[in-house]
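Recall the central idea of this unit: under ordinary conditions, the amino acid sequence of a chain determines the structure it adopts. In this exercise we apply that idea directly, starting from the sequence alone.
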Amino acid sequence: MPQLSDQTKTDLIQTAHALADVARVATLRHFRRFDLEAENKETKRFDPVTIADRESELRMREVLAIRRPDDGILGEEFGPKASASGLTWVLDPIDGTRGYLSGTPTWGVLISVADESGPIYGLIDQPYIQERFEGGFGVARVVGPMGEAALHCRGPRDLSEAIVFSTFPEVGTPEEGQAFARVSARARLTRYGTDCYAYGLIAAGSIDLVIEAGLQAYDVQAPIAVIAAAGGLVTNWQGGPCHQGGQVLAAANAQIHAQAMALLNG
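Accordingly, the structure predicted from this sequence is:
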């Protein structure tokens, strides 16, 4: 991949914010409406998709068709588009559709741009509270109800003082759940159910770890970029790359990451 010019980086940043802006409008149009319905994408569990998921992704694809037509697209709701530029936009139009259906403000829109090595820039946007976490190209900031602030992950501390998040208490397979339980038993506090918002909290310095399993690329690429820009790290449970999904260990720093990884693989 050739080195990106400053002009290209600026255009990618502006495009990402344009995508987040149209996704805000599309998702808020249906949020907390009593007549919102959901289809189930799976048979063994409830994995919902709504008109808001599809509309959000369509609006973002329309922006990309105008602004970045040579870039690829990998989105949750529609088929992939091949890249002619070496760059691919990875889109999750609503991460946390269960939370969206429940009316909680912890779902989000995930937007990232990746080259062959993985994500290089990303946004985690929460439309309802208008909070946007941004990371990449030398930028690490959050803009929201409390104004604008730099993103900085928490410093090292023992796992016994750590706050750990995961979306589901089961955390994947029974074996993966047992591995997570070993970490949770050592941690100071464990919380569940905030989907992508938990990754923003790592970047903002509020929590220490997010541990997940069974994720897709569009679930994790934006968080990888944001957390890396804030000084943290996101890997699989063995310490390798996870931008294609699977098991994910997001950590505020290398020390807490190492402690959690040792227990996950214990």
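The chain has a mean pLDDT of 95.
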